Structure formats: C-alpha cells, structure tokens
Amino acid sequence: SFLANLAYGVTTGLDVEPGTTDILAYQDLIDAGLMIGPRALSTGPGVSRNNAFRSAEHTKAVLSRYKDHYRVNNLKNYLAGNRKERQWIVAAAKELKLMPTTEGGLDMKLQMTHVIDGFSGNEHNFPVLDLFEDTVQLVARSQISYTPALLVNYGGPRAENYFYTRENPHRDPKLRRFMPASAIASRTLRTQWFLDEEYVFPQLAAQVAKIVRAGGRVGVGAHGQLQGLGYHWELSALASGGLTAREVLRAATRHGAEIIGVAEDIGTVSAGKLADLVVLSQDPTVDIRHAREILFVVKNGEVFAGDTLDKVWPQVQPLPEQWWWNSAPGDSQ
C-alpha cells in the first residue's frame, strides 16, 4: 500500500483509525529511510464509547497516552459517548495540541454537534442530498475539515462501484507492479454494477462544492478502498459535483496539509518547505484525470519515476524486487 500510494503521487497520508498500532512502526521505518513510501501519519486506534469517559480529567488522561506513547498529532473520535463526553474530548485535545476528527455515523444532527463543538474534522459524507444555506454557512464558517470519502458514500451505491465497473483496474499494469494480483483481485472481481442514474455521489459532491464556495475546507480521503489509484477516483468523484479541477487539486494539496496540521512543511510550493512535487505529462486543470499521468514523484527532494518508483535522483537506484513479481502466471489473472 505504501508503494502504490507514493507511485500515484501521495507523498503524505494520514491513516484515520488504523486497526492496529503497526502503522507506528512503519512510520518510523519510512522516516528512517528503511522503507519506501509516503509519510505515514496516523491517529492511532480510535477513541470510542468503549473508553467510557467519566470526567474531563479522565478524558485528558486517556488522550495523554496518545500524545506521549503513540506520538500522534491527530485523533479519531469514533462515536465516543454522549455530547458531554465528546466536549471533554475536544477540550482535552485542545490542551494537548491534538487535532480531533470524528465520524458522523449517518446521523446529521450528531454531525452538526461536531461542527458546533469544535472538532477539527468530520469524516464521511453528510447523509443529506441537498444542504440548505444555513448548514452550508455553519460548516464553512466553523472551518471544520469535511472529508466526504465519496468512494464509500452513504445514500446510494458507493462511488467505488462506479469506477470498478467503468474502468479496468484489475489489469492495470501500474497497479499490478505495486500490489499483489491477489490483493487487487479481492477488490476488483465480482463487484456490483449499477445504472448511472442510481449513483448519488455527484449530488453529494455538489454539496461539497457549496461548502467550498462558501469558504469551507474539504479534504480528499479514499478510505483505503484501492491503494494509490483510489485516491484519483476520489478526485474524480469530487469533480463530478461541479468543483473545478483547480479546486479539487487545492483540496488534495493545500487543504489536505492544513487538515492534518502539516501545512507549515508541505501542501504548497514555497521557500523553506519540504520538496514534495508531482511532475505530470498532462495538465490536470484541463481534466482532473490527467493527475494520474505521473512522470515523477518528488518526496523530500528524492525523485522517483512514476511508473516504476525507481529512484532517479540524487542517486540512481531501482526499486527492490517485490515478492509478487514472480508469482505463478495463473495467480489471480
């Protein structure tokens, strides 16, 4: 997954609520140069109702472990308790300088309390196909970060099914270089097919556009559905609702960095920031799909060939051989 994401131009990613703490070790390996991949930031395991917070002091004690031992700067609140408990989380996170994003659980009223109470982010789409102006303004002016994750949208067939059945990722040669055939097959085979008019992700993306035009901040999250290429599907899904290619690219770069708290180092090109760039062969402002046409990925000043991840600068170094390159010919073809 790290190889695939870097090859498709993702130089920094936040794993929002990983299933295990393994990601923390991978982050160290990547930062130390012992693995190739994006900066692998994480929230650590989610904070949920299982924590059974009893007081503001208890909440701070639990969140302190995330700061001190998981070494994270971001936090995922997954439907943790009642509103008072969630407010304790916000207050403790502010004191500890943690950025708490949250999940709406298909409950629009709950998600509005996330906006009002000061959470830094809300994951997954609002489960409403037409947001009125009062809600749009509330979300935009609060500056909460809204990451709709349209590939797994609520309210209709998931957008990922649209791309699985309209494209052919199963036999994509670039994807097969960076992921085992069996892993690709587990996602691409026997997917559900729907009529175009059954999909709601363009309507949901149109609500995203309202928030952006009102001055709000929107992020790009592909929910880990298909590593690397899935991120570009999410870009296309966001564009389907009327956002311009430039607005989508801003969400993927500047706003993404702001959302996870690393905008001082990445997200825009300026003196003093880390050298992260994606060099394309076609103009993505003409068609957002052109963002897939990657010639080179530059991370921390190191230059990788987009199709192979062979390092071409400052040293020439081929990507080490991966075990699945020599799989039997009949494996998941």
Q: Largest sheet at a glance?
A: 6 strands, parallel
Overall geometric form: globular
Head-to-tail CA distance between termini: 20 Å
Spatial order of the strands in the main sheet? 3-4-5-6-7-8
Spans of at least 5 consecutive residues whose pLDDT stays below 50 are none
Structural class: alpha/beta
- Tell me the β content: 5-15%
Q: Give the beta-strand count.
A: 12
Total helical segments: 12
Order of helices and strands: HEHEEHEHEHEHEHHHHEHHEEEE
Mean pLDDT: 95
What share of the residues lie within helices? 25-40%
- The rounded Rg comes to 20 Å
Label this structure with key terms.
333 residues, 12 helices, alpha/beta, single chain, six-stranded parallel beta sheet, four-stranded antiparallel beta sheet
